[in-house]
Amino acid sequence: MNAVEARGVSKSFRGRPALCGVDLAIREGEIQGLLGPNGAGKTTLIAILAGLIAPDAGQVAVCGLEVRRHLHLVQAQINMVRGFSGVLEKFTARELLNYYALLYHAPAGRVGEVLRRAGLWERRDEEVAHFSSGWRQRFFIAKALLNDPRVLFLDEPTVGLDLDAAQALRDLVREINRQGCTILLTTHYMREAEELCGPIALIARGRIVARGDADTLKALVHGPDLPDPTLEDVFLRLTRQPLEQPDV
Amino acid sequence: MSDRSAPWLRILAQAYHIAVALRRDSFRLLDVTLWPLVLFLSMALFAASFTRDPKAIGVVVLGALGWRIIYHFQMEAVQLYMDNYWMGMIDHLMISPLRWWEIILGGALSAVAKIIVIAVLFLGLGRLMFQFQPPDPLATLFGFLACAACGLVLAIFSLGIAFLKRGDAFAFIFAFPDVIAVISGVFYPVTVFPVPVQAFARLLPTTHAFDLLKATLGLAPAHPGWLFATLLPWLAAAILFTNLALARARRDGKLVKMK
After folding, report:
1. Which residues in chain A have Cβ-Cβ distances shorter than 8 Å to B256?
2. Spatial separation of the C-alpha atoms in residues A179 and B212, rounded to whole Å
3. Which end of chain B is more exposed for a tag (fewer CB within 10 A), N or C?
4. Angle in degrees, CA A31, A37, A43, rounded to 5
5. A60-77 core/surface letters (b: 16 or more CB in 10 A; e: else)
């Protein structure tokens, strides 16, 4: 069963196309990568899947429910972590998580559980605004676990993190996925995508230009000039193709 | 996990959010201490310096409290939304199963708590300093409830404006209750205004809410029928506007501050 399904999704902002007929299906339990240059449409696609932006055309279903018609039912089963997310000042980690726990009707004891899982228990009574980027992302992971989501959107979650913090976050993501959560991950780090994701979709100028696992994608650009391509080679070559070329 | 499981928990969440912000932010505490006291004392002492007529003091006490009720019922929910917007957390709020009316009702819960504090201040000082007591407590309470209902209608409109105008909305929203209170004749009859303004004022439920308070002092006729006749259409318009604003913000990508 597909946990996420987008068909023919298009979106323009002030006449400028952001997404053009995007199709994307993510099977339950997968970590789907979504790679693309800045402005390619990754965040717009996630916002549409999460019901934050309405598409101009196309259909979107998450957890088997059409997002437009069952918005709040869908939102009860999803969550999101973004890179460079701001945070409310004056709130401790525990206080902010208590707030979100009420929003998601999380069971009693859940806040303590996610604080421990994200390694934040010792810092639960510190203000999140004073956390470093790495600890802040741990906080957002904890927040995202409160409703035990079936689908988790990770939009550049490791951007700006040091190596240790990024690795710790990737470990957390793997653990969350092992427990059955479907994940859509956008990142600019090819190694991260290769390390975490099964299928990977490349998006450029609002279109999915290629999809498949890392090896399948590499095979697409393999040739005499690139005998041993990396995912970065794939990314650079396929996302720079002119729009006239058919999708791979 | 159903989204219908507990709207009341999501409403409570908003009140919790506001309570934590209030506890941690001394500036917010001024909202229930210094600012209302400045309003109350400046108006009441001004009135008392001219007359010891209990009606003059009474209209200041009840009018100032009614004004604060409108302000808090309007502002609490919108402040919460704007805080999340300014701090870059609005996407985390809007991706949750929270509905807009739950933000409004959560704001109303904390408004009740703040108003209790302010009411104790105003009524206590009114009694201690000016020997004023509301002559008809039940009718006065009804007047305050009418002010609260007007504040809720304003809150709904304001949230719709916040959905549409985002960061630019706040200055406009902040001015709302004060302008409305002045036009609605908070301490005086609306007959002091030119006829066109009077006509507009009579279309506002706030005018009739303040009249209910003044009526307890014998300073205006009480027209509960007019209150409901104006309140209900404004409420319906506010709900319609905010639903449309939310749909438009979602369509235009303005609901959240994605990068």
Report:
1. 47, 52-53
2. 60
3. C
4. 60
5. bbbbeeebeebbebbbbb
* CATH 2.60.40.10 at A2-86+149-239, yes or no: no
Q: What is the pLDDT along chain B (259 residues), one digit of tens a residue?
A: 455 558 999 999 999 999 999 888 888 889 899 999 999 999 999 999 999 899 999 999 999 999 999 999 999 999 999 999 988 899 999 999 999 999 999 999 999 999 999 999 999 999 999 999 999 999 999 999 999 999 999 999 999 999 999 878 888 888 888 999 999 999 999 999 999 999 999 999 999 999 999 999 999 999 999 999 999 999 999 999 999 999 999 999 988 876 5
Q: Give pLDDT tens digits for A177-202.
A: 999 999 999 999 999 999 999 999 99
Q: What is the DSSP letter of A233?
A: H
Asked whether the beta carbons of B65 and B119 are under 8 A apart, the reply is yes
Q: Where are the domains of chain A?
A: 2-86+149-239
- How far apart, in whole angstroms, are the C-alpha atoms of residue B36 and residue B122? 8
Task: Write out chain B residues lying below 8 Å of A85, CB-based.
Answer: 88-89, 91-92
Q: What b/e readout covers B43-54, taking b as 16+ CB neighbours within 10 angstroms?
A: bbeebbeeeeeb
Q: With an 8 Å Cβ cutoff, are A52 and B255 in contact?
A: yes
CB contacts < 8 A (A, B): 111
User: Which residues lie below 8 Å from residue A187, measured CB to CB, with a gap of 6+?
Assistant: A33, A35, A154, A156, A157, A158, A159, A193
Q: Which uninterrupted H or E stretch holds A26?
A: strand A16-27
Nearest to A76 among B2, B24, B259 (CB): B2
A85: nearest Cα among B255, B89, B80: B89
**How does strand A65-66 pair with strand A200-204?**
unpaired
Partner residue opposite A102 with nearest CB, options B13, B87, B93: B13
The full set of domain ranges for chain B reads 7-252
Q: What is the pLDDT, as a whole number, of residue A246? A: 46
pTM, whole model, 2 decimals? Answer: 0.92
Contacts of B88 in chain A (CB under 8 A): 85-87
